[in-house]
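User: Design a sequence. Structure:
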């Protein structure tokens, strides 16, 4: 076997740098240059794809399958270096000599870049778009975040100023006074925070109706069609008796003697206990333990005689007692409106449905208002029953069946405080108006709902009464009347009947452990809690008088005196005949 000799070519060595040496430096340069392979470029122009120079993966086994020269699929022509030659200095030279290099340039790929299939990702591929468009988007996002942060901070500030344990100082002076003057000799027995009421639950059986007193007139359905554009003037009813007594109720005394129950109360008192966690203003109840009987009562001139206005609102009311928009003045105005509204929306035909007995404790010469007292008994445990006097205001025929109604009225005094103008929103946005009232008067609406549930009313009618002018608190108009089923409305306002009865049961159990005597339960004016004080047996007996006593003889502060004494001098024709 004959082997062919392998001749090693001479490789010149450049001592001055990279690349082949100049011909002047070494005489053997010409010999080395002759030994180099022909037509192999040592440098590349911008017309070549440098990434494909050493592509050993190209399949050249079938040269006949190569596409025609010049076609789009002919990529081998790009790497055809036959047009170049090595000059004497071993540099790359175009065969055309000194021709312009741009003449040899050709576009490698003229197709536009592929468009993205999903989303505007193209903007991130462009340097300009990558720095501009996302920046504008980030600015919008940051602006929205700043606005949301401002709104959240404002809501937190309002909440902390009005709903925490330290209420707003501007409201404390007027609305957050104690409803009763705590005397030094009173002994505090219990202090119950509202947080302990939240988890209470008690299930009661269906109550038993013991007696139905009084008489009811029919509801006038034409008031359901009242709109702000067809308003009606609120009338006054001075010749009807609105007085509601509790401790002097002859029926309750008779039931107590007959040993029909252990605990006695009214629906207004039970509703105040059931909705106590929603209350903001101070209120009080009188509790008397006589033998094995327990009586829940209210004193004359109590805040429960009036109706709270703007109680749960975030906006403060004026502090001056003489201001027509102060909490006390609005309470008097709301009681006056509520009493007259309940009598105006009745059919004026003189017909009245009478029940078992007349209303107890009615003065001679006074006409009874359209009201019925339903005395109902609930079983709290095996040896304890509760009797409550529940109030109904009217009756109506629904689906050929007689239904009982409760009638109440919300009053608008100034749209600047409520935030919603009833005359503009009631006709088109009733839901927004009601939601705003739930925010501003949540406790009052909850108590009305609880009273309707206790009385087993089929429907509760709520009237919307507004002042003729924001500065005129004597004249009012009825703008609308809405009706709700008590159970459905209780669900809308998140009023849990199990929790309501759980609160009552816990208070009753606590009071039944007390010894015989008189006690007062007071809602703290600035903290969400109630306190129970032991008071003398003759406390509150001389509070209600026709004329106010001198200041040095008064036990109660001036704002807690008789309702009739406070309305003297204001407007005799607008004074309520009694307090509901």
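Assistant: Done.
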């Amino acid at each position: 076997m004959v082997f062919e000799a392998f001749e090693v070519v001479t490789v010149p060595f450049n001592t001055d740098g990279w690349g082949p040496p100049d011909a002047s430096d070494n005489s053997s340069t010409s010999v080395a240059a002759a030994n180099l392979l022909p037509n192999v470029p040592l440098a590349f122009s911008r017309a070549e794809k440098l990434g494909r120079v050493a592509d050993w993966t190209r399949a050249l086994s079938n040269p006949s399958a190569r596409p025609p020269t010049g076609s789009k699929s002919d990529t081998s022509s790009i790497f055809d270096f036959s047009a170049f030659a090595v000059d004497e200095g071993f540099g790359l030279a175009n065969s055309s000599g000194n021709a312009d290099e741009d003449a040899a340039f050709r576009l490698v790929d003229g197709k536009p870049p592929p468009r993205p299939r999903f989303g505007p990702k193209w903007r991130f591929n462009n340097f300009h778009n990558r720095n501009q468009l996302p920046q504008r988007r980030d600015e919008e996002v940051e602006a929205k975040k700043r606005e949301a942060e401002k709104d959240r901070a404002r809501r937190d500030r309002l909440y902390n100023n009005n709903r925490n344990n330290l209420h707003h100082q501007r409201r404390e002076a007027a609305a957050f006074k104690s409803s009763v003057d705590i005397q030094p000799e009173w002994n505090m027995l219990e202090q119950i925070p509202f947080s302990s009421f939240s988890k209470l639950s008690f299930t009661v059986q269906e109550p038993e109706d013991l007696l139905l007193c009084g008489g009811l007139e029919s509801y006038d359905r034409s008031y359901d069609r009242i709109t702000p554009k067809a308003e009606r003037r609120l009338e006054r009813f001075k010749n009807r008796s609105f007085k509601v007594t509790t401790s002097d109720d002859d029926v309750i005394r008779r039931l107590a003697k007959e040993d029909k129950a252990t605990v006695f109360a009214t629906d207004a008192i039970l509703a105040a206990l059931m909705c106590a966690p929603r209350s903001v203003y101070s209120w009080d109840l009188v509790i008397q333990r006589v033998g094995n009987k327990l009586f829940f009562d209210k004193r004359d001139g109590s805040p429960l005689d009036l109706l709270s206005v703007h109680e749960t609102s975030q906006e403060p009311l004026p502090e001056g007692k003489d201001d027509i928009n102060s909490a006390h003045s609005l309470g008097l105005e709301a009681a006056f409106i509520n009493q007259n509204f309940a009598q105006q929306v009745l059919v004026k035909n003189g017909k009245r449905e009478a029940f078992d007995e007349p209303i107890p404790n009615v003065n001679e010469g006074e006409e009874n208002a359209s009201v019925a007292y339903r005395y109902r008994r609930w079983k709290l445990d095996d040896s304890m029953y509760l009797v409550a006097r529940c109030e109904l205001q009217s009756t109506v025929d629904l689906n050929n069946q007689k239904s009982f109604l409760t009638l109440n009225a919300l009053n608008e005094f100034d749209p600047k405080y409520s935030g919603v103008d009833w005359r503009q929103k009631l006709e088109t946005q009733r839901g927004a108006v009601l939601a705003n009232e739930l925010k501003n008067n949540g406790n009052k609406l909850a108590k009305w709902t609880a009273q309707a549930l206790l009385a087993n009313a089929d429907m509760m009618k709520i009237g919307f009464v507004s002042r003729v002018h924001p500065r005129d608190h004597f004249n009012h108009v009825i703008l609308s009347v809405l009706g709700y089923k008590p159970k459905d409305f209780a669900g809308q306002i998140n009023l849990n009947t199990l929790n309501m009865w759980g609160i009552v049961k816990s208070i009753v159990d606590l009071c039944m452990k007390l010894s015989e005597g008189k006690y007062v339960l007071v809602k703290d004016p600035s903290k969400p809690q109630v306190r129970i004080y032991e008071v003398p047996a003759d406390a509150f007996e001389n509070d209600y008088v026709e004329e106010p006593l001198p200041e040095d003889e008064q036990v109660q502060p001036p704002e807690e005196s008789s309702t009739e004494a406070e309305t003297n001098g204001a407007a005799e024709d607008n004074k309520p005949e009694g307090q509901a």
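The CA atoms of residues 449 and 559 lie 28 Å apart. The chain is about 25% helix and 20% strand.
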